[in-house]
Amino acid sequence: MIKIVFMLALMSMVLPVNAEIYKCKTNDRVMYQSTPCTQGASDEVDIYIPSVPDNSFEPGDIPDDDYKEERRQRWAEEQKRLNEKSKAIREERLRQERFKKMIWHHEVAIGMTKKQAERSWGKPCDINRSVYASGVHEQWVYCTGKYDRQYLYFEDDELTGMN
């Protein structure tokens, strides 16, 4: 145990390091080394090590409480956004599962796509299409008897009404 404490104490000590670097030129090559050059002239290179100002913060320090509060608020907003997004995804999955069951029972519901409505009721007898600046509106006509008709109304690709 004493050896471990001693080793940790030794490793935590910071000692200043002095090193000299020499720049050597030989045969049109420049080399940097820690010993003076054996041939030719050698220049000692000064290495600039910036000092840390006295008022600097340690890595774990936070300058003020406002910064903490701002980070906490940003985190809370991000969590709220992620929760809303995952809730919307869950709701859409449940909606699609409900639509699958309805297709199986040959039923339609507001919000279905054209493809889902066609899977549920089949191809319509007639399609009346109107194109406006706001989008494409379609009326699908299903012939259920000699004179009986059922209608599905779509805006773009979504079922918006039925009759």
TrEMBL record:
Origin superkingdom:
Bacteria
Protein name per Swiss-Prot or TrEMBL: DUF4124 domain-containing protein
Q: Which organism is it from?
A: Amphritea atlantica
Q: Which UniProt keywords apply?
A: Signal
Q: Which residues form the signal peptide?
A: 1-19
